[in-house]
């Protein structure tokens, strides 16, 4: 392998040799950490000097005592002119260093250059005085370009992304980089590192396996040495370039060394775990060691004491450890059933749902004692709740009721299941059981906060709901560990934020996405629904449709078919694609909501009403909105009227049912508390529709435009234009009309533009030649704002995943955008997007 990234160092050495030939000889010391290629550099320099005809002599440092030809104190018979190279000077004896020091001054008037290389951190105090008489050059790690070149030669091709990530752990060390593709890399790197460490090899190994937890005190407990000795050893490792010591924490400098040494030191994991236990380390830190250790009686007993807490937030390694421990224990072992219960919980919270159900049922078949029985029962209940099957959750609780009143943790699960079916009396009874225990059990307290938050926003106390969710977040931070409730808290926050018309709902949903994907079940579909609705409300319709597509591709929609298709209906109606809207309506008809989806039935109903209204079937639309206004749809739908009230009142007013419109507005006035911009704006809008009050309609249009509901802002401006036109104020009507059309155009809402044209034409108001044009179907002008932003980021060289992270949307959404961009522009590849964007700029 060639020498990479050392051109400047070779030039420095060559310049010193040239100066020596002009009578300015001297001593040049090259310092480097191990693995930086010091010997290779000196070899390359020697070869380059020979090629110019200069005499070159090598002086060997002989093991084991570091003697050289200078050790006897006899002046060497060196040539008058040329280069002398000494490698591994850090191994040389004191006599050699003294002789070189004495010769350094003599060299200044000769045509001879002595180049000596040493490891930078090896006993630096030995060289302090000596190097005052020498020129010093420090060899640094390779830069990125040199690393890339080395990897390319190493593999014979462009380095893969995985190899580049691995190379980052070598921190520019050429020797380590050269080992990255070796089959026995871990053994080779470990032998190299421990060989350098010498008597500190054990310390090096424990520092590797403890990783970021490798503080001096923990290392001392593991090694069995006093902290002062460990600190001295760590400083020796730092001097060798192997470690860094900061504020009492020892970290190996190269991730490759840390990982490879740890991989070959598995036998020390149990020792490290016991050392951490002796230091009262948290169980999570101990598990990091035990996941690599063989199962024995001590490990099983320790797990038995801590598994319940650990299982609430499991790592894949913990699940594997619990499985190995359960397999290791024999029937009748007192630790077996508690470990099985913990395994079921860990499988549940890591998304291995079928395995969790099997483990829980098998545990119950063994007739365990009450604590284990209740934990296993809770797993079965949570599985049913996660599947949006509250009836199944209640059924799973029935056997436990035979033992008397439900314990607090099962009582809160009972309360949640009953809430999902609208059984408020049952909720109150379950809460009466659980609440007295909340102060002593943070998990119970966490469930209670989330259940009460649901109640608050159902009854439209949105500020109160957020306050409870803030308390739940604080509890998760300091006292409770429950992955399901952590996800539930984020989902509820996103719902409340969207109800308050806050754009932060999209960010909150994005934060919840990784955990929802991991846990799966109905919570993932709920997240898709929340996100699709928030995207729709904020005018990001392409992203909303992509979110709906991602959800409907899942094997089970857990009852959310209706609301998901209803959101698509609304978007497609706005865009004028009634055939596609009808197709979604047919899919929505066969849906049977359950669990959380029951709270979204009104979304499904309003979707059908919007489609009927767009098709001119005002009677059908009116029938649907009457059922909504009467509270006959969904769970506690009467309190959801404020959310969909604007659409209900608009359809009622348009169909001539003023009594229905008045009733809905009166109901909204009772519900709206003032803490939601969206609900305040909706009430203003509805009152304006009811009273034909243009000032209220324009005020509502402005509120919606400023607070993230662009389609409602456009419709309010359109309705204001109709009122103005009906009163003969044609100029003002045209101005409001233009505002509405501009907003519809920004949304690509062709259907709304068409309907607005027809409605205003009846009053003699037309857009005219100077009015806004519809977006073309092809070319750059056909792109929506969201598509244009994606194209811009693609043109900057970002991958679809990077674009998704930048815009806080799913990768599937970006994939959909890129496909549409290519189709609209007539391009075949991303490269054409880059070139086309550059031509436009």
What is the CATH topology descriptor of the domain at 555-761?
Serine Threonine Protein Phosphatase 5, Tetratricopeptide repeat
CATH architecture of the domain at 555-761: Alpha Horseshoe
**Helix fraction bin:** 55-70%
Largest sheet: 5 strands, parallel
- The overall pLDDT, averaged over residues, is 89
Show unreliable segments: none
What is the CATH class name of the domain at 555-761? Answer: Mainly Alpha
Give a count of the beta strands, DSSP E runs of length 2 or more. 7
Number of helices: 42
What form results from the Cα inertia axes?
A: flat
Strand order of the largest sheet: 2-3-4-1-5
Derived from helix and strand composition plus strand pairing, the structural class reads: mainly alpha
CATH superfamily label of the domain at 555-761: Tetratricopeptide repeat domain
Rg for CA atoms: 37 Å
Concise description?
By secondary structure, the chain is mostly helical.
Q: How is this fold's topology laid out?
A:
Blueprint: H1 7-21, E1 26-32, H2 38-51, E2 56-59, E3 81-86, H3 94-107, E4 111-119, E5 135-138, H4 144-155, H5 161-168, H6 174-179, H7 185-197, H8 201-210, H9 216-223, H10 227-239, E6 243-246, E7 249-252, H11 255-263, H12 269-278, H13 283-290, H14 297-311, H15 316-328, H16 336-349, H17 353-365, H18 370-386, H19 390-401, H20 408-420, H21 424-434, H22 442-458, H23 462-478, H24 483-499, H25 504-519, H26 521-537, H27 541-552, H28 561-575, H29 578-589, H30 601-614, H31 618-629, H32 641-654, H33 658-671, H34 677-691, H35 694-706, H36 710-726, H37 730-746, H38 750-761, H39 785-795, H40 800-807, H41 811-825, H42 830-840
Parallel strand pairs: 1-4, 1-5, 2-3, 3-4
Antiparallel strand pairs: 6-7
């Amino acid at each position: 392998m060639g020498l990479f990234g050392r051109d400047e160092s070779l030039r420095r050495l060559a310049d010193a040799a040239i100066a020596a030939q002009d009578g300015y000889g001297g001593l040049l010391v090259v310092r480097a950490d191990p693995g930086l290629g010091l010997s290779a550099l000196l070899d390359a320099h020697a070869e380059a000097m020979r090629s110019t005809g200069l005499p070159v002599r090598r002086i060997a440092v002989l093991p084991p005592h570091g003697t050289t030809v200078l050790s006897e104190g006899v002046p060497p018979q060196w040539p008058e002119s040329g280069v002398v190279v000494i490698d591994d000077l850090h191994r040389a004896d004191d006599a050699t260093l003294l002789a070189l020091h004495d010769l350094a001054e003599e060299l200044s008037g000769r045509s001879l250059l002595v180049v000596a290389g040493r490891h930078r951190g090896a006993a630096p105090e030995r060289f302090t005085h000596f190097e005052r008489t020498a020129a010093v050059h420090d060899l640094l790690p390779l830069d990125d370009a040199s690393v890339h070149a080395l990897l390319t030669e190493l593999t014979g091709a462009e380095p893969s992304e995985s190899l580049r990530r691995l190379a980052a752990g070598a921190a520019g060390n050429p020797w380590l980089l050269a080992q990255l593709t070796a089959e026995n890399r871990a053994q080779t790197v470990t032998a190299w590192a421990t060989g350098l460490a010498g008597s500190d090899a054990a310390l090096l190994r424990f520092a590797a396996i403890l990783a970021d937890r490798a503080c001096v005190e923990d290392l001392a407990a593991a090694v069995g040495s006093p902290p002062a000795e460990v600190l001295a050893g760590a400083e020796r490792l730092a001097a060798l370039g192997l470690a860094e010591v900061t504020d009492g924490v020892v970290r190996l400098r190269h991730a490759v060394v840390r990982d490879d040494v740890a991989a070959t030191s598995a036998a020390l994991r149990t020792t490290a775990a016991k050392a951490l236990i002796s230091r009262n380390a948290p169980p999570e830190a101990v598990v990091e060691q035990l996941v690599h250790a063989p199962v024995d009686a001590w490990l099983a007993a320790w797990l038995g004491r801590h598994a319940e807490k650990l299982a609430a937030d499991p790592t894949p390694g913990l699940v594997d450890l619990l499985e190995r421990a359960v397999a290791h224990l024999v029937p009748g072992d007192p630790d077996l059933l508690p470990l099985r219960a913990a395994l079921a919980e860990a499988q549940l919270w890591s998304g291995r749902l079928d395995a969790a159900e099997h483990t829980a049922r098998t545990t119950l078949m063994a007739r365990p004692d009450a604590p284990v029985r209740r934990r296993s029962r809770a797993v079965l209940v949570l599985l049913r709740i996660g599947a949006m099957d509250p009836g199944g959750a209640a059924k799973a609780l029935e056997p436990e009721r035979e033992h008397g009143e439900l314990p607090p943790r099962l009582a809160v699960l009972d309360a949640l299941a009953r809430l999902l079916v609208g059984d408020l009396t049952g909720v109150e009874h379950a809460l009466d059981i659980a609440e007295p225990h909340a102060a002593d059990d943070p998990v119970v307290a966490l469930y209670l906060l989330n259940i009460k938050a649901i109640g608050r926003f159902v009854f439209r106390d949105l500020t109160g709901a957020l306050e409870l969710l803030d308390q739940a977040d604080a509890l998760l931070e300091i006292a409770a560990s429950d992955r399901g409730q952590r996800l539930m808290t984020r989902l509820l926050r996103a719902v409340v934020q969207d109800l308050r018309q806050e754009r932060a709902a999209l960010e909150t949903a994005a934060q919840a996405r990784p955990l929802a994907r991991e846990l799966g079940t109905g919570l993932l579909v709920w997240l898709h629904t929340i996100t699709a609705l928030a995207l729709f409300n904020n005018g990001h319709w392409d992203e909303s449709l992509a979110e709906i597509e991602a959800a409907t591709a899942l094997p089970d929609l857990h009852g959310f078919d209706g609301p998901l298709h209803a959101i698509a209906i609304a978007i497609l109606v706005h865009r004028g694609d009634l055939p596609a809207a009808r197709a979604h309506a047919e899919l929505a008809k066969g849906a049977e909501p359950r669990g959380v989806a029951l709270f979204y039935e009104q979304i499904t109903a309003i979707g059908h009403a919007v489609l009927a209204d767009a098709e001119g079937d005002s009677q059908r639309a009116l029938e649907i909105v009457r059922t909504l206004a009467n509270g006959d749809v969904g769970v506690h739908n009467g309190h959801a009227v404020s959310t969909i009230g604007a659409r209900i009142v608009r359809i009622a007013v348009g169909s001539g049912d003023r009594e229905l419109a008045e009733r809905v507005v009166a109901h909204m006035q009772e519900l709206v508390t003032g803490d939601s911009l969206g609900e305040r704006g909706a009430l203003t809008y509805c009152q304006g529709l009811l009273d034909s009050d243009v000032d209220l309609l324009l005020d509502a249009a402005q509120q919606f435009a400023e607070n993230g509901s662009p389609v409602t802002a456009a419709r309010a401006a359109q309705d204001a234009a109709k009122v103005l036109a009906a009163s003969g104020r044609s100029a003002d009507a045209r101005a409001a009309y233009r505002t509405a059309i501009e907003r519809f155009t920004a949304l690509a809402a062709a259907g709304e533009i068409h309907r607005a044209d027809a409605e205003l034409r009846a009053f003699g108001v037309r857009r005219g030649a100077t009015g806004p044009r519809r977006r073309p179907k092809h070319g750059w002008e056909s792109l929506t704002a969201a598509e244009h932003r994606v194209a811009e980021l693609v043109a900057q060289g970002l991958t679809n995943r990077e674009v998704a992270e930048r815009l806080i949307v799913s990768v599937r959404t970006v994939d959909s955008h890129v496909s549409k961009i290519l189709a609209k522009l007539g391009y075949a590849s991303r490269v054409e997007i880059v070139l086309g964007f550059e031509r436009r700029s």
